[in-house]
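Structure ticket #2291
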Amino acid sequence: MSMPKVVPIFVLLFAVLCAPSTYGHHNAASHYLLDKKITVTGVVTNFRLINPHARIYFDVTNEDGDTEAWLGEGNASSVLRRRGWTSDTLKPGDVITVTGSPARDGGHKIDWELIVLEDGTELRGGNTKAGELEQQLRDLDKRRSKSNE
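Resolution: structure written out below.
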């Protein structure tokens, strides 16, 4: 007696349905030069606390005085929310200094590691780089301690 063909069909169907989610996320190294760091300063035009990556849109004035539209990508909103971020963390008009990895294609994109606000507040939330989680948790503890004083 042979095994029913129903089981292989379910396995195939499961694999087909799950395949798109497997390819849906990429390693930051596919888009950014992770071994290089740049720092740019600009003015926030939009902030989107979304998945799979939070996005900051900001304008940078280059050396020639021209305005360049930049995109900063960070961690997923679910991760950032657990670390204290809200949709109001960055607002249009905020001046930010962003440090992170530049785009492989030379475009105006950055995989952010650190954002510094005008008042010196440091915000972390890059794509879970080594040591970043620990620093984010220390920063969150400091903010909580200050609010309890």
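Closing remark: The radius of gyration is 20 Å.
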